[in-house]
Design a protein that fits this description.
This protein is of the alpha+beta class. About 25% of the residues lie in helices and about 40% in strands. It contains 2 helices and 4 strands.
């Protein structure tokens, strides 16, 4: 009886985990920052997911398409690539499309 209960719990756990396999907010923020200069020193504030829809890459890999809004802030500024962004500079974005595809290395 205990073995059956353990197997049932394991199956339930695996089912819940497999259904919850979506990109995290950190994955989405990382993808948003790729389009900005000094992405490694910038942060995303107030990320809002406006819309989510499943998608498939041209290679058949499953993923998600997001429309997101929020703002990017550079707490310590940026002087990379000849730019001069002062510390604390903020840039808002609205309805930015972000596509994340699941690969062996994680969400890309």
């Amino acid at each position: 009886m205990a073995k059956r209960l353990l197997v049932a719990c394991l199956i339930t756990f695996l089912f819940i985990c497999s259904c919850n396999n979506k990109p995290s907010s950190a994955d989405i923020e990382k993808k948003v920052l790729l389009e900005y200069t000094c992405a490694e020193t910038a942060k995303v504030n107030s990320l809002q997911i406006v819309k989510t829809s499943p998608t498939t890459s041209i290679f058949g890999l499953k993923g998600y398409q997001y429309l997101v809004s929020g703002e990017v802030v550079w707490p310590s500024g940026c002087t990379e690539y000849g730019t001069s962004v002062p510390a604390g500079y903020k840039e808002s974005f609205e309805n930015k499309m972000v596509v994340l595809i699941k690969s062996d290395e994680g969400w890309q």
